[in-house]
Amino acid sequence: MPATVIVGLQWGDEGKGKTTDFLAEQVAMVVRYQGGDNAGHTVVAGTETFKLQLCPSGVLYPHITSVIGNGVVVNPATLIAELEMLAARGIDVSKVRVSRSAHVIMPYHVALDRANEGRLGGARVGTTGRGIGPTYGDRAWRLGLRMEDLLDREVLRERIARALPDKNLLLEAMGAPGFTVDELVDQAAAWGERLAQHFDDSTWLVQDALRRGDHVLLEGAQGTLLDLDHGSYPFVTSSNPVAGGACTGGGIGPLQVDEVIGVMKAYSTRVGSGPFPTELFDDVGRGIAERGHEFGTVTGRPRRVGWFDTVPLRYAVAVNSNSAIVLNKLDILSGIKTIRLCVAYEIDGKRVETWPSSGSALSRATPIYEDFEGWEQPIHDVRSLGDLPEAARRYVAALEEHAGVPIVFVSVGPERTQTIERAWRPMRHRPTMPA
Ligand code: IMP
């Protein structure tokens, strides 16, 4: 019963889509377990580029069941548009299954997210404006709507009528227009009608697949440093992208996870506000952003760019219990004379090697760098680690040493084939029941 979790080790946008897509040929099911349409996965298949926000990246393969798990928050309008886009491009979407328990992002959640960011001014989080925080907030406050509720107009009316007065009061206080119960019930019921054929009990889908011995991939969105618990709060998203989130949001138990693959880029990026000790403001940073196409898939915002930081890497590997790492976008660093690697911070005059849980300590951190000689030549066509320039090999070896976990794939370009594969560690197999 192999279950593999794919998790971002940085601030999201590490290229998890490409990794999932690369492994997808071997798996029967891919499950999204948290986040919503704040995520953007770019997958390049042959000459075609697909930008996905809700469907797991495995949707491009006809043999894969794509599951949107209970831990995801779903904007039905985005999902419908995505299903229609995929169908129009010849992709079979009949195997896209959506948890009946996943929470619904309602129009008032989106409006509240945007109005609140406006109100916060300079203190804003820089959210994607997709209503993610307010939806998870309502889920925790037991005020949310779940996908199954879209199938029953009575339930919809009752739940919306209960929640809406407070939402409208807040929106009005923030100078934004409110909503009426009738318009929301009509819209939600229409979504339910359109999506009903995709609804399922996602936990049993996943459990049955594992029982059959199918390989299930659980795909994280965002990254460890945006995790609600482990990131630099409050500059985080409202879910748990860490591997533990795959259990609560994907419907599996911790002992059902065989592999936790961490995905990271050869440098750092961050979208939105919050501390970013290794951030670059110079031409080197601008060059990386340009070559790496570092613009948000969802918002189009330019991403902040910086040197690789091993301090949060060591933290991320610990909290995710990674068994393997995928290193993406090594090719983007070609042509840089000196590559800097942050190995520790200086905080209040002291050397600190552990990721500080205090946001204020992190905002006072100055990076301590180790410098690596760069390499000139492009590496897009390299397919084995031994063929990389020596300087690139030294950099990869340093990252691996800091992680303490083998780097199993190195990506040298956006296409599936532009990947260096190293020996794959055998999966851990658990003992079966005694006879
Ligand atoms: P939210 O998830 O829209 O509430 O945004 C909270 C924070 O997470 C902001 O800093 C966003 O820029 C960031 N964020 C959310 N989704 C992604 C993503 O897919 N990639 C990178 N950053 C993200």
Descriptive overview:
The chain is built from 12 helices and 20 strands. It is an alpha/beta fold and 435 residues long. The longest helix is centred in the middle third of the chain and has 21 residues, at 153-173. It folds into 2 domains: 3-81 and 202-421, Adenylosuccinate Synthetase, subunit A, domain 3 (Adenylosuccinate Synthetase, Chain A, domain 3, Alpha-Beta Complex); 103-197, Adenylosuccinate Synthetase, subunit A, domain 2. The radius of gyration is 22 Å and the shape is globular. It has helices spanning 16-23, 76-88, 107-120, 132-140, 153-173, 181-195, 202-212, 243-250, 283-291, 310-320, 359-363, 390-403; strands at 3-8, 29-32, 41-45, 48-52, 65-68, 73-74, 96-99, 103-104, 199-200, 216-219, 259-265, 268-270, 304-306, 308-309, 324-328, 338-347, 350-352, 366-373, 407-411, 419-421. The mean pLDDT is 93. It has a 10-stranded mixed beta sheet, sandwiched between helices. Strands 14, 16, 17 and 18 form a 4-stranded mixed beta sheet that branches. It starts with a strand and ends in a 14-residue tail after the last strand. Bound molecules: inosinic acid (IMP). The site of inosinic acid has 21 residues, from α4.
Comma- or semicolon-separated keywords:
435 residues; alpha/beta; Adenylosuccinate Synthetase, Chain A, domain 3; Adenylosuccinate Synthetase, subunit A, domain 2; 2 domains; 10-stranded mixed beta sheet; 20 strands; 20% strand; globular; binds inosinic acid
